[in-house]
Write a structure and sequence with these properties.
75% helix; two-stranded antiparallel ribbon; globular; 348 residues; transmembrane helix; L-PG_synthase/AglD; 2 strands; mainly alpha; disordered N terminus
């Protein structure tokens, strides 16, 4: 008879799923739920957009696309330049919070190219973070600092958006109710909630230094003064971005900018939630639904021009700048490699 007691039983091997910590399993489950919700939102938006576009007359759309005046296009370009200029301040604030001394020309290049690329390709944490690391790493900025910078810049965007949304929903609750088919008190309640969020956040960061943990690493949040700058710059950027589309809309819509900016923010938020590149399809469907009382061809023509001004042209410029930046670095490296060593003794 074999002696079973002399050989202790080895515990069965745990599968990778069983070995996960409960919190990790829960976070993975939520990640899958979020991904599924994004896919459903994106698919539903494409269906809505398809039904709307299928009813559009192509000839009328061409006429609407080419009907924009030079004044409208000029204003759209101006607001696009203003928006991307304010976006460079996102990085400047984040660099100041991280106590990093980077020349503004480098900051402007990293900010403009990262946003122009991420707005078009989507997945901003990955695409914007990669472009930023490409430009900031030669200045000695570590990957963790680049990730922190990207998160702080994102906080600036959402704080500014919350402030503008609160202002619009509270001030123009009645006009928005007729556009998005909600009650006035619902709009005011959401606006009040956004305002309370901004005020509570400002009080929270002003009492003492605050930090958050993201995926195991610690990030210290800006204090009151920098957070106030974040809110104002973010609000200015959101208004400038909304202004690009607003000036391209056909005349006679009788929409105030305060009313339109709330519709714009909802469209942007749904586009972000869908994880579609640049919110493509979701953004357009939301705008077309909110402005369904107006002729679709001119509105869709304005949306196409908006995509061209705010997304495509900056994206092309960003690629050209990144290409020129890389060529310059290659030439500089080649010159340094061929430069004679000062300690080298010349041959007689």
């Amino acid at each position: 008879m074999n002696d079973m007691s002399s050989h202790p039983a080895t515990p069965p091997e745990m599968s990778s799923a069983e070995a996960l910590h409960p919190k990790e399993r829960r976070s993975r489950r939520f990640a899958w739920i979020g991904m599924a919700a994004s896919i459903v939102l994106f698919g539903a938006s494409l269906v809505v957009l398809w039904h709307m576009v299928s009813e559009i007359d192509v000839n009328e759309l061409k006429a609407a696309f080419t009907a924009a005046s030079f004044r409208q296009i000029g204003l759209a370009v101006l607001f696009t330049a203003l928006s991307y200029s304010l976006l460079t301040c996102y990085d400047a604030i984040a660099l100041r919070q991280l106590k990093l001394q980077i020349p503004y020309r480098t900051t402007a290049l990293a900010s403009f190219t990262s946003y122009a690329v991420s707005f078009t390709l989507g997945f901003p944490l990955l695409t914007a973070g990669t472009v930023r690391y490409w430009i900031y790493s030669p200045k000695g900025v570590k990957p963790g600092r680049v990730a922190s910078l990207t998160v702080i810049a994102g906080v600036t965007f959402w704080l500014g958006m919350a402030l503008v949304l609160a202002w619009s929903l509270i001030r123009k609750a009645d006009e928005l109710a007729s556009l998005v088919y909600t009650n006035i008190w619902v709009n005011q309640l959401v606006g009040l909630g956004a305002a309370v969020f901004v005020v509570v956040y400002m009080i929270w960061v002003s009492l003492r230094r605050r930090s958050v943990r993201i995926q195991g690493w610690k990030l210290e949040l800006p204090g009151f003064r920098l957070s106030l700058a974040q809110i104002l710059i973010g609000a200015g950027d959101v208004c400038a971005g909304a202004g690009v589309l607003f000036v391209l809309l056909p005349g006679g819509h009788n929409l105030s900018f305060e009313t339109f900016v709330a519709v714009y923010i909802f469209a942007v938020m749904l586009g972000v939630a869908s994880h579609a590149p640049g919110g493509l399809g979701v953004f357009e469907a939301t705008i077309l639904l909110a402005l369904s009382a107006y002729p679709r061809e001119p509105v869709l023509g304005a949306l196409l021009l908006y995509r061209l001004c705010y997304y495509l042209i900056p994206f092309v410029i960003a690629l050209a700048l990144l290409g020129a930046y890389e060529i310059r670095n290659r030439i500089r490296s080649a010159r340094l490699s061929f430069k004679p060593d000062d300690n080298e003794v010349p041959a007689e």
